[in-house]
Amino acid sequence: MDTIKALFDALEAKHWTITTAESCTGGMIAGAITDVSGSSAYFDRGFVTYSNEAKMEMLDVNPITIKAYGAVSEQCARLMARGAYAHSKADIAISVTGIAGPDGGSDEKPVGLVYIGLATDDHAEVHEHNFNGDRASIRTQTVEAALRHVINYCS
């Protein structure tokens, strides 16, 4: 996968490792990274936090944030990335939370809405995406976008 090679090149240039915090992708980002030989030089660990309880327990996402904004929100994605960074030895963390469908969407938060968070020691940012397609397509697009955000940040 060209994206993984680009990710490894970007991380290697900074002498960085990455950690992941995934909800709607269920570990697909970690899987894409570790499918490639040599990934242990770049990948620290991954958190699959599908439930709200897992987000709170493993990533220190504040329950008040989830109650106020929902698990699929900019605020939650930011806290997930910060939590993954804090609970790892990695230099950069990526998080994803969204609605992959086909159910679960609403007018306010439609199927395909995904927030991708990124955190380092002194920085955090979140990107909102609205992907189209079926569940598999939305999840695949999320993985690709998350990896691209890390590559762009490192470049």
Cα shape: globular
Name the CATH homologous superfamily: CinA-like
Sheet with most strands: 5 strands, mixed
Detail the poorly predicted runs.
Answer: none
pLDDT averaged over residues: 97
**Distance from first to last alpha carbon:** 19 Å
- Proportion of beta-strand residues: 15-25%
Helix-strand makeup class: alpha/beta
Query: And the CATH topology?
Result: Maf protein
Textual characterization of the structure:
Helix 1 (2-14) packs parallel to helix 6. The chain has a 5-stranded mixed β-sheet with strand order 2-1-3-4-5, with helices on both faces. The chain is of the alpha/beta class and 155 residues long. A hairpin with a 4-residue loop joins strand 4 and strand 5 (124-130). Helices cover 44% and strands 21% of the residues. It has a single domain (2-154), classed as Maf protein. It is globular and about 40 Å long. The chain contains 6 helices and 5 strands; from the N terminus they run H-E-H-E-H-H-H-E-E-E-H. The chain has helices at residues 2-14, 28-34, 52-59, 63-69, 74-86, 135-154; strands at residues 18-22, 43-48, 92-98, 113-119, 124-130.
List the helices and strands and how they pair.
Layout: H1 2-14, E1 18-22, H2 28-34, E2 43-48, H3 52-59, H4 63-69, H5 74-86, E3 92-98, E4 113-119, E5 124-130, H6 135-154
Parallel strand pairs: 1-2, 1-3
Antiparallel strand pairs: 3-4, 4-5
Helix pairs in contact: 1-6
Give a short synopsis of this structure.
By secondary structure, the protein is α/β, with parallel strands linked by helices.
